[in-house]
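hey team, just a heads up i'm posting the complex here instead of the shared drive bc the drive is being weird again. everything in one block, sequence lines first with there labels, then the predicted structure for the whole assembly after. its two chains so it's a bit long, scroll down
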Amino acid sequence: MTFDDSNAIGRFIRKLDGLAALPDRDKAALRALPLRLKRVPANHMLVREGDTVNECSILLDGFACRHKDTSGGHRQIVSFHLPGDILDLQHLWLSRADHNVETLTAGRIALIATADLRRLAEERPAIDRAFWRDALIDASIFREWVLNVGGRDGKSRIAHMLCEFGARWQAAGLGSPDRFELPMTQQVIAEATGMSLVHVNRMLQELDRSGAIVRDKRVVEIVDWDRMREIADFDPAYLHAAA
Amino acid sequence: MAYSFQELALASEWPEDETVLVFRGGRLLAVLSRLSDLHGELAGRWFVEALFRGQTGATVPTFAALEDFCSWADELR
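-- predicted structure starts here --
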């Protein structure tokens, strides 16, 4: 099915444009791509490790994560994704999925054939540059997450995750980085930070008490960014101002 | 092997006010805290603060009773 709303992937195109200043003809070529639109429920596996993937998923609405699981069933979340993100750009060149992609909330995705995206990348240097930069920034975020899980104490880990989420919330055009609604449970935060659910709850309460954040259920307000940056050891340079 | 328990207070900032050392065969095996109301549906369950045998961390469950922890810990021999 070819989707007739030419603006469906508008947020994704804006993101690519921010990464590599696309000429208008490249934006038009992206808009002209055949795509399948799909509504997806929360906790829906979009890609499973080992799958052969012929379509890339672009997140239009809702939130998703990537994760790898041990043979014993322990899930390690390795990144969160926001609207406008392409969830599996690596499948342009690597057809076998090496990790899982799963929704955190209900949402919509656009599926585009990897062959079509590959052709655009080969024919249009600006699109190729944007894809490269997107993949490299993904890798930078993964590196930061390894440092976060392996090198920071519990309170810093949670604070860092919140700072990054706020910064990316703003970059995705969803609103101010000072106030956002977390689309994930504390269990999901535990799986992203390598902590127990109990420790996640304790650290969130410590951040509350420190006066750096105010929470109302899943809504987080960062009321003291300087304090949060200090607690989190957060330097947004690794996001390259574009993620 | 026989389990024994010793109550103590942690010097943490967390409101868990019931903590025990768990010994097995006279040797310290774990430190467990009973979770306060701040932990929602986990309140009242025993949380493994530290474990000196087998794995530690996010994959260790919480327990309804100390006996349940001991049964689970039997597998750590």
